[in-house]
Amino acid sequence: MLTFDSLKISEELLKNLNSLGFKKMTSIQAKTIPLLLDKSDLIAQAKTGSGKTIAFTIPLVEKLEVKRFTIQSMVICPTRELANQVAQEIKKVCRHIHNVKVLTLCGGVPYKPQVASLRHKAHIIVATPGRVLKHISENNIQLENINYLVLDEADKMLDMGFYEDVISIFKALPKSKQTALFSATYEDNIKNLADNILHKNIFIEDDDVHKKQKINQIFYKVNEASKTALIPSIISSSKANSVLIFCNRKVTCEHLADDIFDLGFDCVVLNSDLDQKQRDETLVLFSNKSYPIMIATDVASRGLNIDNIDLVINYDVAKDEKVHTHRIGRTARAQNIGVAVTLYDEQSIHIVEDIKEIYDDIEFKDIQSLKDDLSFNLQAKYRTLYINGGKKQKLRAGDIVGALINQAGLKSEDIADIDIFTFHSYVAVKKEFELQALKELNRNKIKGKKYQVYKR
């Protein structure tokens, strides 16, 4: 495998990549980064979890002129969840450069603050199509210096009906820009988009798109009324510590969450009714292992950058084979092995048949073969604390760690993920230290300032 130090990038960027744990390139990174550094246009077919975000981010950061305080790069994503995660990844990769401003423009959040932020300018824009097009139509955004455009998960964008929006955005940008299009599939709609926006491009196909992910797929034929009762057995038989359950409707998610809670499990729910802050918090609580189960509609099937999901359960069969593929792709990320269980009934047989055409290694089992391991106890290892201060207050992860160690008496191994947002932050601690940490953080100051801290 090629290493990042084989690339023609600055020493500072290389050191930062090493500090982030990036040493060897994935297949898609090795194939695309040199071409993107050479300012080539390209179309890259790569699966979720292949490392594509780093692939298009390294050239973006390397060509950034931080002293030119103007928008130089734009990344378009299909969902705000993916846009937020891409923005966070970009910030990590360019953290060795002072005063880089990465601005996220997504729908579902207040519009006027975005207008104000655009007046103060930025270096990099990460956006969803509809919202950035609205800013373009109202002349809120300066486009003349953009030299690098990335369309991430372009197939999902087209599935969501954003074809015309993407074309309009592309036409509004300078003609001399470099364009990179990343897609999990390369079907006719992607070819059509590429033909309309790219003329001299290189097509890159990741070797892994033809390799089956290491997912053990098991299908159980069940009656609708018995599905919920099977959940504990499915979890315990898989020894899963992190479980993502998909339902087709929001109301099903809510009812299932109530039933799961009554069965003794902690869970969170992710659906389109949540505002951005609620979505962010839900994802934080699940990803940092404070809640071992997340129940979601298909809003969560693309764009989630959460590793170490042991088990995906399709409580409802997906509407088609493409959605099924996206769902089960949440597990077996980063070369891990995962398990995906699908519960189906007579009414969904036709979709199951379509799924079988793609996956020839599905195991169809009788529910009688499912054994509940009563010795397995799914419990969260961590608890999350909410702090009413974030980036606007110049609060950093190191400040929170220092307060927990010096004031609350925790050790570094007692502290897990820290997520810092604009006005608030989250820190996960081992659950046996939750009350101790809560008490001491509320009693003392963090970085010389008093904050309110709450349990989540």
From TrEMBL:
Record's protein name: ATP-dependent RNA helicase DbpA
GO cellular component, as recorded: cytosol
Domain Helicase ATP-binding: 33-204
GO MF annotation list: ATP binding; hydrolase activity; nucleic acid binding; RNA helicase activity
Signal peptide annotation: none
Family assignment from sequence similarity: Belongs to the DEAD box helicase family.
Matching SMART domains: DEXDc, HELICc
Keywords for the protein's UniProt record, in alphabetical order: ATP-binding, Helicase, Hydrolase, Nucleotide-binding
SUPFAM superfamilies per record: P-loop containing nucleoside triphosphate hydrolases (SSF52540)
Residue span, Helicase C-terminal domain: 214-382
Domain DEAD-box RNA helicase Q residues, every copy: 2-30
Pfam short name (any one): DEAD
Sequence motif: Q motif, positions: 2-30
Annotated organism of origin: Malaciobacter halophilus
UniProt cross-references to PANTHER family, sorted A to Z: ATP-DEPENDENT RNA HELICASE DBPA (PTHR47959:SF1), ATP-DEPENDENT RNA HELICASE RHLE-RELATED (PTHR47959)
Keyword ATP-binding: yes
CDD domains named in the record: DEADc (cd00268), SF2_C_DEAD (cd18787)
